Amino acid sequence: MAGLDSDDASNDERLKSALWYSVGKTVDEVTLGEDANAAPHFIGGLMELVAAKITAVAGDMEAFAKHAGRSTINSKDVVLLARNNEGLRTILEDKAAIVRHKDQAK
């Protein structure tokens, strides 16, 4: 089982590296437009914040699916996640309807 733990740790490191890159790229784009700079320490902190939010969102959607008696997260769980943000909920409902329509057309 040590191999599995090693693979999980390696995967986590790759995901964090990719997240660091994406957050850093976004921060660079914003700061260039504002004629400002962002320290690597700031980017690291922001990356940790984003990683924590992703983890929380994933856990919430897993709980929603489990509560509904499903083992797979679906668009209903994503929409439920946005239940307190009317604008985001509307956008997600519209996107989910488009995906359902495309699936039915197949």
What's the multimeric state?
A: single chain
Distance between the termini: 42 Å
Strand content: under 5%
> Which stretches are poorly predicted, pLDDT < 50 over at least 5 residues?
none
The count of DSSP E runs of length 2 or more, i.e. the number of strands, is 0
Q: How would you sum up this structure, described in words?
A:
The protein is mainly α and 106 residues long. The chain is built from four helices and no strands. The longest helix is centred in the N-terminal third of the chain and has 33 residues. The radius of gyration is 18 Å and the shape is extended. The model has no long low-confidence stretch (mean pLDDT 92).
Please provide a brief summary of the model.
The chain has helices at residues 2-34, 40-67, 75-81, 86-105. It is mainly alpha-helical and 106 residues long.
Could you outline the blueprint of secondary structure elements for this entry?
Layout: H1 2-34, H2 40-67, H3 75-81, H4 86-105
Q: What keywords describe this structure?
A:
106 residues; mainly alpha; 4 helices; 83% helix; 0% strand
